Protein backbone atom coordinates (compact mmCIF):
# COMPACT_ATOMS: atom_id res chain seq x y z
CA UNK A 1 0.00 0.00 0.00
CA UNK A 2 2.92 2.33 0.62
CA UNK A 3 3.90 2.21 -3.06
CA UNK A 4 0.37 2.95 -4.19
CA UNK A 5 0.19 6.04 -1.86
CA UNK A 6 3.46 7.46 -3.16
CA UNK A 7 2.27 7.17 -6.82
CA UNK A 8 -0.91 9.04 -6.07
CA UNK A 9 1.03 11.93 -4.45
CA UNK A 10 3.22 12.26 -7.53
CA UNK A 11 0.09 12.42 -9.77
CA UNK A 12 -1.47 15.14 -7.62
CA UNK A 13 1.72 17.22 -7.68
CA UNK A 14 1.96 16.95 -11.47
CA UNK A 15 -1.64 18.07 -11.93
CA UNK A 16 -1.10 21.06 -9.66
CA UNK A 17 2.00 22.11 -11.55
CA UNK A 18 0.18 21.91 -14.88
CA UNK A 19 -2.68 24.07 -13.60
CA UNK A 20 -0.24 26.65 -12.29
CA UNK A 21 1.46 26.89 -15.70
CA UNK A 22 -1.86 27.42 -17.43
CA UNK A 23 -2.88 30.17 -14.99
CA UNK A 24 0.45 31.98 -15.37
CA UNK A 25 0.17 31.77 -19.13
CA UNK A 26 -3.33 33.17 -19.04
CA UNK A 27 -2.20 36.05 -16.88
CA UNK A 28 0.47 36.87 -19.46
CA UNK A 29 -2.15 37.29 -22.25
CA UNK A 30 -1.97 33.97 -23.85
CA UNK A 31 -4.91 31.73 -24.19
CA UNK A 32 -4.85 28.42 -22.68
CA UNK A 33 -5.25 26.83 -26.09
CA UNK A 34 -2.11 28.57 -27.36
CA UNK A 35 -0.09 27.62 -24.34
CA UNK A 36 2.27 24.80 -24.98
CA UNK A 37 0.89 21.65 -23.54
CA UNK A 38 3.12 20.09 -20.96
CA UNK A 39 4.87 16.97 -22.07
CA UNK A 40 2.65 14.22 -20.85
CA UNK A 41 4.36 12.01 -18.45
CA UNK A 42 3.83 8.33 -18.44
CA UNK A 43 0.98 7.43 -16.24
CA UNK A 44 2.20 5.90 -13.10
CA UNK A 45 1.99 2.18 -13.22
CA UNK A 46 0.35 0.62 -10.30
CA UNK A 47 2.30 -2.35 -9.13
CA UNK A 48 0.64 -5.26 -7.47
CA UNK A 49 0.65 -4.51 -3.79
CA UNK A 50 3.03 -6.61 -1.83
CA UNK A 51 0.90 -8.69 0.43
CA UNK A 52 1.35 -7.73 3.99
CA UNK A 53 3.14 -10.35 5.95
CA UNK A 54 0.83 -12.65 7.74
CA UNK A 55 1.51 -14.63 10.78
CA UNK A 56 3.53 -17.70 9.95
CA UNK A 57 1.33 -20.71 10.34
CA UNK A 58 2.72 -23.68 12.12
CA UNK A 59 3.18 -26.42 9.50
CA UNK A 60 1.01 -29.42 10.12
CA UNK A 61 3.42 -32.15 11.14
CA UNK A 62 3.34 -34.98 8.65
CA UNK A 63 2.96 -38.42 10.14
CA UNK A 64 6.36 -39.99 10.62
CA UNK A 65 7.11 -43.67 10.43
CA UNK A 66 7.91 -45.26 13.72
CA UNK A 67 11.53 -46.31 13.93
CA UNK A 68 12.11 -49.97 13.37
CA UNK A 69 12.39 -51.79 16.67
CA UNK A 70 15.86 -52.76 17.72
CA UNK A 71 16.53 -56.41 18.46
CA UNK A 72 19.31 -57.94 20.49
CA UNK A 73 21.00 -60.43 18.17
CA UNK A 74 24.14 -60.86 20.29
CA UNK A 75 23.18 -61.76 23.86
CA UNK A 76 22.90 -65.50 24.41
CA UNK A 77 19.70 -65.17 26.44
CA UNK A 78 17.95 -62.99 23.85
CA UNK A 79 15.03 -64.55 21.98
CA UNK A 80 16.38 -62.93 18.82
CA UNK A 81 20.05 -63.90 19.11
CA UNK A 82 21.62 -65.07 15.86
CA UNK A 83 23.94 -68.07 16.13
CA UNK A 84 25.71 -69.49 13.13
CA UNK A 85 29.18 -70.61 11.98
CA UNK A 86 30.45 -67.04 12.11
CA UNK A 87 28.62 -66.02 15.29
CA UNK A 88 29.38 -68.30 18.26
CA UNK A 89 27.51 -68.07 21.51
CA UNK A 90 28.87 -65.69 24.12
CA UNK A 91 29.66 -67.33 26.47
CA UNK A 92 30.30 -70.54 24.56
CA UNK A 93 28.99 -72.71 27.42
CA UNK A 94 25.79 -70.70 27.92
CA UNK A 95 22.99 -72.54 29.76
CA UNK A 96 19.42 -71.19 29.42
CA UNK A 97 16.55 -71.56 31.83
CA UNK A 98 14.31 -74.30 30.49
CA UNK A 99 11.11 -76.19 31.25
CA UNK A 100 10.02 -79.71 30.44
CA UNK A 101 8.55 -79.95 26.96
CA UNK A 102 4.75 -79.98 26.79
CA UNK A 103 5.04 -81.85 23.49
CA UNK A 104 6.19 -85.44 23.78
CA UNK A 105 9.99 -85.28 23.83
CA UNK A 106 11.63 -88.48 22.62
CA UNK A 107 14.92 -87.67 24.33
CA UNK A 108 13.34 -85.87 27.28
CA UNK A 109 15.00 -82.62 26.23
CA UNK A 110 13.45 -79.38 27.53
CA UNK A 111 12.90 -75.97 25.88
CA UNK A 112 12.90 -72.31 26.82
CA UNK A 113 9.46 -71.46 28.25
CA UNK A 114 8.53 -69.17 25.35
CA UNK A 115 9.40 -71.78 22.73
CA UNK A 116 7.68 -74.53 24.69
CA UNK A 117 4.40 -72.65 24.99
CA UNK A 118 4.34 -71.78 21.29
CA UNK A 119 5.29 -75.31 20.21
CA UNK A 120 2.57 -76.87 22.38
CA UNK A 121 -0.07 -74.58 20.87
CA UNK A 122 1.14 -75.35 17.36
CA UNK A 123 1.01 -79.09 18.06
CA UNK A 124 -2.55 -78.80 19.36
CA UNK A 125 -3.65 -76.81 16.31
CA UNK A 126 -1.98 -79.02 13.71
CA UNK A 127 -3.54 -82.06 15.36
CA UNK A 128 -6.98 -80.44 15.21
CA UNK A 129 -6.45 -79.44 11.58
CA UNK A 130 -4.91 -82.62 10.18
CA UNK A 131 -5.59 -85.32 12.75
CA UNK A 132 -1.85 -85.80 13.28
CA UNK A 133 0.59 -83.90 15.47
CA UNK A 134 4.34 -84.16 15.92
CA UNK A 135 6.94 -85.18 18.47
CA UNK A 136 9.99 -83.32 19.70
CA UNK A 137 13.12 -85.15 18.63
CA UNK A 138 15.58 -82.52 19.83
CA UNK A 139 15.21 -79.50 22.08
CA UNK A 140 17.82 -78.00 24.35
CA UNK A 141 21.29 -79.56 24.06
CA UNK A 142 24.17 -78.54 26.30
CA UNK A 143 27.65 -77.55 25.15
CA UNK A 144 29.07 -80.88 26.31
CA UNK A 145 26.32 -82.84 24.61
CA UNK A 146 27.02 -80.99 21.36
CA UNK A 147 30.72 -81.82 21.62
CA UNK A 148 29.86 -85.53 21.71
CA UNK A 149 27.25 -85.29 18.96
CA UNK A 150 29.46 -83.37 16.57
CA UNK A 151 32.43 -85.67 17.21
CA UNK A 152 30.23 -88.63 16.35
CA UNK A 153 29.34 -87.08 12.99
CA UNK A 154 32.99 -86.33 12.24
CA UNK A 155 34.03 -89.88 13.10
CA UNK A 156 31.17 -91.38 11.12
CA UNK A 157 31.00 -89.15 8.05
CA UNK A 158 34.11 -86.97 7.98
CA UNK A 159 34.69 -83.30 8.74
CA UNK A 160 33.05 -81.84 5.65
CA UNK A 161 29.86 -83.86 5.96
CA UNK A 162 29.71 -83.18 9.70
CA UNK A 163 29.95 -79.41 9.15
CA UNK A 164 27.08 -79.54 6.66
CA UNK A 165 24.72 -81.31 9.03
CA UNK A 166 25.82 -80.66 12.61
CA UNK A 167 26.95 -77.57 14.48
CA UNK A 168 30.12 -77.42 16.47
CA UNK A 169 29.71 -76.87 20.19
CA UNK A 170 29.10 -73.20 20.95
CA UNK A 171 27.54 -72.63 17.53
CA UNK A 172 24.35 -74.65 17.89
CA UNK A 173 20.86 -73.15 18.11
CA UNK A 174 19.86 -76.12 20.23
CA UNK A 175 22.06 -74.73 23.00
CA UNK A 176 19.69 -71.75 23.12
CA UNK A 177 16.71 -73.92 24.02
CA UNK A 178 14.84 -72.15 21.19
CA UNK A 179 15.24 -74.76 18.44
CA UNK A 180 12.96 -77.73 17.99
CA UNK A 181 13.61 -80.70 15.71
CA UNK A 182 10.20 -82.24 15.09
CA UNK A 183 8.88 -85.23 13.20
CA UNK A 184 5.36 -86.49 12.63
CA UNK A 185 3.74 -88.89 15.04
CA UNK A 186 4.65 -92.44 14.13
CA UNK A 187 7.67 -91.41 12.06
CA UNK A 188 10.17 -91.89 14.87
CA UNK A 189 13.16 -89.59 15.11
CA UNK A 190 15.16 -90.59 12.11
CA UNK A 191 15.21 -87.03 10.85
CA UNK A 192 14.10 -87.03 7.26
CA UNK A 193 12.92 -84.63 4.56
CA UNK A 194 9.90 -86.90 4.27
CA UNK A 195 8.24 -84.99 7.12
CA UNK A 196 7.79 -82.00 4.80
CA UNK A 197 5.54 -84.12 2.58
CA UNK A 198 3.13 -85.22 5.31
CA UNK A 199 -0.12 -83.40 6.08
CA UNK A 200 1.32 -82.38 9.45
CA UNK A 201 4.56 -81.16 7.91
CA UNK A 202 2.80 -79.13 5.22
CA UNK A 203 0.49 -77.51 7.75
CA UNK A 204 3.42 -76.57 9.98
CA UNK A 205 5.28 -75.16 7.00
CA UNK A 206 2.34 -72.89 6.21
CA UNK A 207 1.44 -71.80 9.73
CA UNK A 208 4.57 -71.96 11.91
CA UNK A 209 5.19 -68.22 11.56
CA UNK A 210 1.88 -67.57 13.31
CA UNK A 211 3.40 -69.13 16.43
CA UNK A 212 6.76 -67.35 16.16
CA UNK A 213 8.72 -70.15 14.45
CA UNK A 214 10.78 -70.01 11.27
CA UNK A 215 12.36 -72.81 9.30
CA UNK A 216 15.96 -72.03 10.12
CA UNK A 217 17.67 -73.93 7.28
CA UNK A 218 15.42 -73.68 4.20
CA UNK A 219 16.01 -75.54 0.99
CA UNK A 220 18.69 -73.81 -1.09
CA UNK A 221 19.96 -71.60 1.73
CA UNK A 222 23.21 -73.46 2.51
CA UNK A 223 25.41 -70.71 1.00
CA UNK A 224 23.91 -68.36 3.59
CA UNK A 225 23.22 -70.47 6.68
CA UNK A 226 25.94 -73.08 6.23
CA UNK A 227 23.77 -76.19 6.66
CA UNK A 228 21.86 -78.52 4.40
CA UNK A 229 18.07 -78.32 4.11
CA UNK A 230 16.39 -79.34 7.38
CA UNK A 231 12.59 -79.25 7.18
CA UNK A 232 12.44 -80.50 10.76
CA UNK A 233 14.50 -77.70 12.41
CA UNK A 234 12.24 -74.90 13.63
CA UNK A 235 13.60 -71.91 15.50
CA UNK A 236 11.49 -69.81 17.83
CA UNK A 237 12.12 -66.12 17.10
CA UNK A 238 8.87 -64.51 18.26
CA UNK A 239 5.69 -63.73 16.35
CA UNK A 240 6.66 -60.18 15.35
CA UNK A 241 9.79 -61.15 13.45
CA UNK A 242 8.34 -64.40 12.10
CA UNK A 243 5.36 -62.50 10.70
CA UNK A 244 7.54 -59.73 9.27
CA UNK A 245 9.77 -62.28 7.54
CA UNK A 246 6.70 -64.04 6.16
CA UNK A 247 5.25 -60.82 4.77
CA UNK A 248 8.54 -59.73 3.22
CA UNK A 249 9.39 -63.15 1.85
CA UNK A 250 12.68 -63.27 3.76
CA UNK A 251 13.72 -66.79 4.70
CA UNK A 252 16.90 -66.47 6.78
CA UNK A 253 17.84 -64.51 9.88
CA UNK A 254 21.09 -63.50 8.22
CA UNK A 255 19.21 -61.71 5.44
CA UNK A 256 16.59 -60.27 7.77
CA UNK A 257 19.16 -58.67 10.07
CA UNK A 258 21.53 -57.71 7.27
CA UNK A 259 24.30 -60.04 8.44
CA UNK A 260 27.02 -61.62 6.37
CA UNK A 261 26.41 -65.10 5.05
CA UNK A 262 28.00 -67.79 7.19
CA UNK A 263 28.63 -70.84 4.98
CA UNK A 264 31.85 -71.79 6.82
CA UNK A 265 33.49 -71.41 10.18
CA UNK A 266 35.85 -68.48 10.52
TrEMBL record:
<keyword id="KW-0121">Carboxypeptidase</keyword>
<dbReference type="InterPro" id="IPR009045">
    <property type="entry name" value="Zn_M74/Hedgehog-like"/>
</dbReference>
<dbReference type="Pfam" id="PF02557">
    <property type="entry name" value="VanY"/>
</dbReference>
<dbReference type="InterPro" id="IPR058193">
    <property type="entry name" value="VanY/YodJ_core_dom"/>
</dbReference>
<keyword id="KW-0378">Hydrolase</keyword>
<feature type="region of interest" description="Disordered">
    <location>
        <begin position="28"/>
        <end position="72"/>
    </location>
</feature>
<dbReference type="InterPro" id="IPR052179">
    <property type="entry name" value="DD-CPase-like"/>
</dbReference>
<dbReference type="GO" id="GO:0006508">
    <property type="term" value="P:proteolysis"/>
</dbReference>
<protein>
    <submittedName>
        <fullName>D-alanyl-D-alanine carboxypeptidase</fullName>
        <ecNumber>3.4.16.4</ecNumber>
    </submittedName>
</protein>
<keyword id="KW-0732">Signal</keyword>
<feature type="domain" description="D-alanyl-D-alanine carboxypeptidase-like core">
    <location>
        <begin position="111"/>
        <end position="238"/>
    </location>
</feature>
<feature type="signal peptide">
    <location>
        <begin position="1"/>
        <end position="28"/>
    </location>
</feature>
<dbReference type="GO" id="GO:0009002">
    <property type="term" value="F:serine-type D-Ala-D-Ala carboxypeptidase activity"/>
</dbReference>
<dbReference type="InterPro" id="IPR003709">
    <property type="entry name" value="VanY-like_core_dom"/>
</dbReference>
<keyword id="KW-0645">Protease</keyword>
Amino acid sequence: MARVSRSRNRTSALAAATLLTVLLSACAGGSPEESPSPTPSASPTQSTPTPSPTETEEPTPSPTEEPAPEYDIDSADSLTVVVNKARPLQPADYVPETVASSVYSVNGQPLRPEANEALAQMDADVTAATGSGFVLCSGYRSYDYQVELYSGYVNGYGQEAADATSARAGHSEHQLGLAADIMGEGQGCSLSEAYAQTASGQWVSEHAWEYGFILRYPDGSQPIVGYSYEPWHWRYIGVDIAQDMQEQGITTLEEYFGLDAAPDYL
